[in-house]
């Protein structure tokens, strides 16, 4: 048996076209969704991510502005910029690219963002809303994984989902979103004993570890759905996931390759969150 390998271009492309159409509807009503991306310092990978987000906005018809600040920017200067973006009516989403320089407290910055404009869903108010199931933005990567599962026709309700990773950005909210979809959820992490024993019970296995190709065939139940969130660079310079794709592809029923699926879907959810923030600000109901 060989898995159905999800085609990111097709799946993500179709979803971006849907979002673009909704953006056009909103623009016709006189509101152009706007995203401000703030980047501090010269981290080359972060600049690539920011460029990709900016380009995706342009393609979707979303207004986007990038604020590039020098490494020596003070925390007060950054907070001042956030406050001015909070009160700017043409900006509906604010994203501060991490990592920030060490002298800036990331938590402090996140808490300054108006929760209504927090399209990353990192503000404690939005994290709390997610926990208790209130509407609002969902964090981009885990929400993207849910969207991939749904669009690939994977049934989630009643299934045993095992998430490897418990970060605030991916693992923890991933578990919350899967619970919302009525999965039975197990979270594994670096201190989990008998990882293989747990992962091999998963109907849906989600790897968000950040270590190249550590998930092998023996971790995967035959016929499982495997979603690889990891992005790792091998010594050769090639990108790979947390899952050893070639080893697992024969065992799984559905699998996502890296790169090409979870990464682009993450950006797509950022577009969706910006659109929905603009719809809320304009008092327009979001189309589901
Ligand atoms: P993190 O380092 O904050 O968390 C990694 C988690 O993996 C931790 O909770 C840790 O307990 C767990 N872990 C580490 N080693 C383990 C092991 N041997 N066995 C079991 N669990 C183990 O990383 P993160 O921010 O959650 O990101 C995880 C991965 O996802 C990274 O590769 C990151 O680059 C990638 N990522 C991708 C996207 C995307 O858009 N595609 C977005 C965010 C993160």
> Number of helix segments?
10
Q: For the residues shown, what is the average pLDDT?
A: 97
Total domain modules: 2
> For the terminal residues, how far apart are their CA atoms?
35 Å
Radius of gyration: 19 Å
| N-to-C SSE string, H for helix and E for strand | EHEHEHEHHHEHEHEEEEHEH
Description:
The chain is of the alpha/beta class and about 290 residues long. It has 2 domains: about 30-115, Rossmann fold (3-Layer(aba) Sandwich), CATH 3.40.50; about 140-265, 3-Layer(aba) Sandwich (Rossmann fold). About 40% of the residues lie in helices and about 15% in strands. The protein is built from 10 helices and 11 strands. Strands 1-11-8-7-5-6 form a 6-stranded parallel sheet. A 3-stranded parallel sheet has the order 3-2-4, with helices on both faces. Helix 2 (about 45-60) packs across helix 10 (about 260-280) and helix 6 crosses helix 7. The longest helix has 21 residues, at about 10-30. The chain starts with a strand and ends in a 6-residue tail after the last helix. It binds nicotinamide-adenine-dinucleotide. Nicotinamide-adenine-dinucleotide binds near residues 170, 171, 210 and 214.
């Amino acid at each position: 048996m060989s898995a159905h390998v999800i085609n990111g271009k097709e799946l993500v492309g179709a979803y971006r076209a849907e979002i673009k159409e909704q953006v056009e509807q909103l623009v016709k009503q006189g509101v152009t969704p706007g995203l401000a991306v703030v980047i501090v310092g010269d981290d080359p990978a972060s600049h690539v991510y920011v460029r990709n987000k900016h380009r995706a906005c342009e393609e979707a018809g979303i207004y986007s502005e990038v604020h590039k600040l020098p490494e020596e920017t003070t925390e007060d200067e950054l907070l001042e910029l956030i406050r001015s973006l909070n009160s700017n009516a043409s900006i509906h989403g604010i994203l501060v690219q991490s990592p920030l320089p060490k002298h800036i407290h990331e938590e402090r910055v996140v808490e300054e963002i108006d929760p209504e404009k927090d399209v990353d869903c990192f503000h404690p108010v939005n994290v709390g809303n997610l926990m208790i199931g209130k509407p609002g933005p969902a964090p981009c990567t885990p929400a993207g994984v849910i969207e991939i599962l749904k669009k690939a026709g994977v049934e989630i309700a009643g299934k045993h989902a095992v998430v490897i990773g418990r970060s605030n950005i991916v693992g923890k909210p991933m578990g919350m979103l899967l619970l919302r979809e009525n999965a039975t959820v197990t979270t594994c992490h670096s201190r989990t004993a008998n990882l293989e024993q747990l992962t091999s019970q998963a109907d849906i296995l989600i790897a968000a570890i950040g270590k190249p190709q550590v998930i092998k065939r023996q971790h995967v139940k035959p016929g499982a759905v495997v979603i690889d969130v990891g992005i790792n660079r091998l010594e050769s310079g090639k990108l790979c996931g947390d899952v050893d794709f070639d080893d697992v592809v024969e065992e799984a029923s559905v699998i996502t390759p890296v790169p090409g699926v979870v990464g682009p879907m993450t950006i797509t959810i950022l577009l969706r969150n910006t659109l929905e923030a603009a719809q809320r600000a304009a008092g327009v109901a979001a189309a589901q």
